[in-house]
Amino acid sequence: MTEDFEMRKLSQAILIGIPGALLIAQFRTIQWANPPLKGDLVAPPQIKTRLRQACYDCHSNETQWPWYSYIAPISWLVERDVEGGRRQLNFSEWGSYYPTTRKRKLQWVERTLHGETMPPWHYRILHPGASLTPQDLAELEKWMESEIAEQPQKSSENNMEN
Ligand code: HEC
Fold it and tell me: What ligand 1 atom has the least distance to the C-alpha of 108?
């Protein structure tokens, strides 16, 4: 008898508790509004297209927020990706980086492309078009090498930092 009662109370708590928690979670709003562009990366169209498809959702101020990014708790995960991504590398603010910073970030990008760690696997599952083919990788690499070579050398002090 009492066990039955306990079970009923427990399942009631779950039935009310989970939707309740999810409902409350929706109240924490997220910055879905994209910040303005501050010197977007300039690159040949085919390079730009690939970066837009594969990287811009997290590494630019032109994030396309999917429908599930409006639903907590998934929205929190998307927000974390976008915030963390923009902080490390923001193609929309490329023009405001120092040449040495740009060079360092390009070298970072090369490393992530070599290691195939970007875009993250969970993003590739949800956005099959974001995966980079070996040909894309080769083209991006070639462009990056030329960009790295073109960045002005500021001073010997800065060079030593790299
Ligand atoms: C789903 C979001 C997402 C996408 C899409 C994405 N990134 Fe990232 N990226 C991140 C996050 C989050 C970080 C920060 C990781 C950290 O702080 O540890 C990051 C970090 C980086 C870094 C900094 C170095 C490092 O390894 O942490 C580079 C470089 C980078 N990403 C390149 C790229 C490139 C190039 C693309 C496209 C080919 C891309 N990312 C696509 C989320 C993303």
Answer: 29
What is the CA 77 to chain-centroid distance, rounded? 11
Q: To the nearest whole number, what is the mean pLDDT of the chain?
A: 91
Q: How far is the CA of 81 from the centre of ligand 1 (A)?
A: 8
The pick from 80, 87, 112 for probing ligand 1's pocket by mutation, whose C-beta has the most ligand atoms within 8 angstroms, reads 112
Tell me the pTM.
Answer: 0.88
Taking only the tens place, the pLDDT of each residue in 70-98 is: 999 999 999 999 999 999 999 999 999 99
Domain boundaries, the chain: 1-30, 34-161
